[in-house]
Design goal:
Elements lengths: L9 H9 L3 H7 L16 H33 L2 E3 L2 E3 L2 H12 L18 H14 L4 H4 L2 H10 L2 H13 L4 E4 L15 E5 L4 E12 L5 E7 L10 E7 L4 E6 L10 E14 L5 H38 L1 E2 L2 E2 L4 H40 L5 H40 L10 H8 L9 H13 L4 H8 L6 H26 L2 H30 L4 H24 L3 H10 L2
Parallel strand pairs: 3-6
Antiparallel strand pairs: 1-2, 4-5, 5-9, 6-7, 7-9, 8-9, 10-11
Helix pairs in contact: 1-10, 2-10, 3-4, 3-5, 5-9, 5-10, 7-8, 7-9, 9-10, 9-11, 9-12, 10-11, 10-16, 10-17, 11-12, 11-13, 13-16, 15-16, 15-17, 16-17
Length: about 575
């Protein structure tokens, strides 16, 4: 029976209809006035949700019927470099043709350029399904953030040149940020941008490494435009096209995501155009790009976790030992039940996060185009930015770690066969491993989130969730989450009162994990309030997660500095 990765996963549609996209859609559709220029634009929220549902159904069908069956061959064939030209696996080429034919390569771009003008939330649902079908393909389909960055910050002429070609699939994109000596520390980027006054042209020279889809036709490049600078204030963003001076020196031989080429690039006087203002490449444009990338990788991780979990469930139902299917054994079904609860919580967290990203982006656009920015609009933009800035790293940390644990458990359920290439379990395990590394490791996500956690940015939202009209079991569970929230607040005060930077850094992970647990607990309760059948999974998630929160609170409340004091002695053993 043909599979549809949207229709067979009702949790995606549940989130689409319950996350609360009213304000998001209204703002994105200019209070539904886009119908004046584009007859296909929605006339109200119901019309928009119906349109999203139809496109998601179409993408789900492509994922289930076309992309997923090709994934094993794509993994086996991989990408190839010959005479400086990168060739995708045959299956990847067919996948990209299918997606281009479906007209979903410009999902978030404005309609005047051929895009669908969909919110980030809906696009992220697509990337989740694509990732479930083939984790590596998301690294190509998910690079639409590059076109979105051009749409946000480039000149009208640059938009007119590039965006229609992105929408049609004529060009693809890459973000060239990382260098051999500048990984997570992008302030150390050294690739030089030289301006030739005679030709009024910028030229790029230097090396980039670990560039996803580095063979792309259009590149966004972070480069040092200011002579004599050494920090982020000397960096600007440039757009260039693939040409004779842009060489792919090699593609990496990777553990996983074989369908996505990771390239080392050499720039030899490559003509380029400045995007936006000089000196704001890192501080403004790359930060925006990275925020989008966090969401994309979160969706990639969730799709991989979903695929791995389903693989384990199927095997557990079919494999018999000692006269019965192994799903009947507590040691097996306990793993599957716990992972299912975490996946559903992670999906709630992801689409709650994307809603706030949408609200932030809409407010930012409104500020840019308003004749006069009112204090109310500016305040809204600032508030939405703070919330999104906390949620995106927490979301990436949670979901990418979840993908790795779910893939691990699936191999464990398969036993020895999971270690073999006869089953996709080992591919999910290999593909998942990169998700909590690229676009910022989990440890760096905690660094990004901890400021907002300490400032209690999400407290008003949590308080609102706490006041929802729970009854019966949900009321008891909500009281448990409320108490956990109070412990989180006390833990923050304990760390703050220490006034010890090293203790603060050491406890950042624990505080971020506590924050995520409390928020996900409330989100699961809210979901169960909308659908009573979800009560049982809310209970399972909350009871499991609160045990971890208690452990983190215990460590923080002790204020134990022994790990700091004894680290040299322990490391020397």
């Amino acid at each position: 029976m043909p599979e549809n990765f949207y229709c067979d996963n009702p949790d995606i549609k549940f989130n689409l209809t319950t996350v609360g996209l009213d304000e998001v859609v209204r703002d994105r559709e200019n209070d539904y006035r886009q119908t004046e220029r584009f007859p296909e634009a929605p006339v109200d929220l119901a019309d928009a949700l119906d349109s999203y549902d139809k496109v998601l159904t179409m993408v789900g069908e492509i994922c289930g019927e076309n992309i997923a069956p090709r994934a094993a061959d794509v993994d086996e064939e991989g990408c190839h470099l010959e005479h400086g030209v990168v060739t995708y696996a045959k299956g990847t080429q067919e996948n990209l043709k299918d997606l281009a034919k479906a007209q979903v390569l410009g999902v978030m771009l404005p309609r005047q350029y051929g895009g669908l003008n969909f919110p980030v939330t809906v696009y992220t649902m697509m990337t989740e399904m694509v990732s479930r079908a083939d984790t590596s393909l998301q690294n190509l389909f998910g690079l639409q953030d590059i076109a979105e960055t051009i749409s946000k910050f480039a000149s009208d002429e640059q938009k007119a040149l590039h965006l229609p070609r992105f929408c049609s699939g004529e060009v693809d994109g890459a973000m060239a940020l990382t260098e051999p000596e500048a990984g997570s520390d992008l302030q150390a980027v050294q690739l030089k941008a030289r301006f030739d006054k005679d030709t009024n042209q910028w030229f790029l020279n230097g090396m980039k490494r670990f560039i996803t889809n580095g063979c792309a036709k259009v590149h966004l490049v972070l480069a040092r435009s200011e002579e004599g600078t050494k920090d982020g204030r000397g960096l600007s963003m440039f757009v260039c096209e693939r040409g004779p001076g842009l060489l792919v020196r090699r593609i990496e031989n990777k553990l996983g995501i074989h369908g996505s080429p990771t390239c080392e690039l050499q720039f030899n006087d490559v003509p380029a155009e400045l995007v936006g203002d000089r000196r704001r490449g890192l501080t403004r444009y790359v930060m925006s790009l990275m925020n989008g990338a966090r969401v994309a990788i979160s969706a990639q991780a969730l799709g991989t976790a979903e695929a791995a979990w389903r693989c384990g469930l199927k095997y557990a139902k079919e494999r018999e030992q000692f006269g019965k299917a192994i799903i009947k054994f507590p040691a097996v079904y306990e793993m599957l039940v716990a992972d299912r609860a975490r996946i559903l919580a992670g999906r709630s967290l992801l689409y709650f996060t994307t809603k706030w990203v949408d609200l932030r982006d809409n407010a930012d656009e409104a500020c840019k185009h308003a004749e006069a920015v009112t204090p109310e609009l500016k305040q809204k933009e600032k508030a939405y930015s703070k919330i999104a800035a906390v949620l995106t790293p927490l979301c990436k940390a949670y979901l990418t770690e979840l993908a790795n644990s779910a893939a691990y458990n699936t191999i464990q359920i398969h036993g020895g066969t999971g270690f073999m290439k006869d089953f996709p379990a080992e591919r999910y395990y290999r593909d998942a491993r990169i998700t909590n590394i690229y676009e910022g490791t989990t440890q760096l996500q905690y660094v990004a989130a901890i400021g907002g956690v300490m400032l209690r940015v999400l407290d008003p939202i949590m308080a609102e969730f706490s006041r929802l009209p729970y009854e019966g079991k949900l009321r008891r569970l909500a009281s448990a989450v409320d108490m956990a929230h109070e412990k989180l607040q006390r833990a923050v005060k304990i760390v703050d009162a220490k006034k010890d930077p090293e203790f603060f850094d050491l406890m950042a992970r624990r505080l971020c994990e506590m924050e995520t647990t409390v928020l996900c607990g409330y989100l699961m309760l809210k979901g169960a309030l909308a659908d009573k059948t979800r009560e049982v999974v809310a209970e399972r998630f909350i009871l499991d997660a609160l045990a971890g929160l208690e452990a983190n609170y215990e460590v923080i409340s002790r204020g134990d500095l022994s790990l700091i004091d004894n680290r040299e002695a322990i490391l020397a053993m």
